[in-house]
Amino acid sequence: EKTANLTILLSGLNPAKFAEYLEEFIKSSGLNLTVVYGPSYVDVIQNGADKSYSLNIFSEKTGIKLEEIVGIGNGKNDLSMLKIVGLPAAPANAVSEVKGIILERGGYLASKSVGKGFLEICRHIVRNASPEIIYL
Questions:
Q1: Of 43, 58, 62, 56, which Cα lies nearest the Cα of 4?
Q2: pLDDT classification of 42: cutoffs 50, 70, 90
Q3: Separation of alpha carbons 116 and 23, rounded Å
Q4: Contact status, residue 81 vs residue 71, Cβ threshold 8 Å
Q5: How much helix, strand and coil, in percent to the nearest 5, is found in the chain?
Q6: How far apart (Å, rounded) are the C-alpha atoms in residues 28 and 31?
Q7: How far apart are the first and last CA of the chain?
Q8: pLDDT class for 135, splitting at 50, 70, 90?
Q9: What is the pTM (predicted TM-score) of this model?
């Protein structure tokens, strides 16, 4: 089962350098892992176990269709998820690859970053959703 995932939040360390160290360690150990990093984190993910994999399992088990799901992300680790959800969204501080997916798929790109961007996305969803979705 592809379920391994570890997020390391960094304080005072350079994520790119730490990710490079982890990638070398993973390669030399022969592990089936991928490293994705951002400005303050490093994700270590079992190959094939990304957010789209998890969402597909969630969709199958709950009966909620992927096109009925909103995906909100700002980093490279969110790309696979944003490609399959019904409404991809991101805060203003998202990496360029995420912004590209959002614009390409007609999603919602907030004008604000992080927390305030998330709140803006939620307001957008509530304003634009049909009444039956709001009251589920």
A1: 43
A2: confident
A3: 33
A4: yes
A5: 50, 20, 35
A6: 8
A7: 32
A8: very low
A9: 0.70
| Cβ contact 40:9 at 8 Å | yes
Quote the tokens at residue 115: 């927390």
Give which of 53, 69, 65, 57 is closest to 107, Cα–Cα: 69
Residue 59, Cβ density class (10 Å: 0-12 exposed, 13-18 middle, ≥19 buried): middle
For range 98-106, the mean pLDDT: 97
3-state secondary structure of 74: coil
Q: Give the long-range contacts of residues 69-76, CB within 8 A, separation 24 or more.
A: 70/121, 70/125, 72/118, 72/121, 73/98, 74/38, 74/98, 74/114, 75/36, 75/38, 75/41, 76/36, 76/37, 76/38
- Give pLDDT tens digits for 28-41: 999 888 888 877 77
Q: Above pLDDT 90, what percent of the chain? A: 51
Amino acid at site 3? T
